[in-house]
Design brief:
Number of domains: 2
Shape: flat
Length: about 150
């Protein structure tokens, strides 16, 4: 539903043509904005001090997706310029895809471990987040608290 609202806003109201980067990024930011808004209303019902934590978390996800897209774009562009060898064989192509996916999964795990403390910190402030997170997440959460 949120994706449909993002598509409607990007294509009908903002008049970005379908399939363009402008349309895609408008949909991305609108969807994460609405998700943050919805989650923030839930935060408000639990504890007024938590209101903007979810909003910040969800907008940060849209920003990092935009960053990822730029990194992928520049990496592909760089590889295209340097490619002088003949077309890759099927096995090499499959290997390259597997390596790309592995890098992507590692990036998602890294980014999640860096940003989930923002989301969880509000729960801790209200006493809802008393679960044991493990040493890595607790370390990252403590670092976030030191920054703020």
């Amino acid at each position: 539903m949120i994706g449909g609202l993002g598509r409607l806003a990007a294509n009908k109201f903002l008049k970005f043509p379908r399939g363009t980067n402008w349309s895609s990024y408008a949909q991305l930011y609108i969807a994460f904005f609405l998700s943050g808004l919805i989650h923030s209303s839930g935060d408000f019902m639990v504890e007024k001090r938590m209101v903007y934590r979810s909003f910040k978390f969800f907008l940060l996800q849209a920003v990092i997706i935009t960053f990822e897209d730029f990194v992928i774009y520049f990496a592909k562009r760089s590889l295209r310029r340097r490619r002088t060898e003949p077309k890759l064989e099927k096995a090499d192509e499959l290997w390259a895809v597997a390596v790309g996916r592995a890098i992507g999964y590692c990036w998602v795990i890294l980014w999640a471990s860096l940003t989930f403390p923002i989301f969880l910190d509000g729960l801790n402030a209200t006493g809802w987040g008393s679960a044991d997170r493990g040493p890595i997440t607790q370390f990252l959460l403590n670092k976030w608290k030191q920054r703020g």
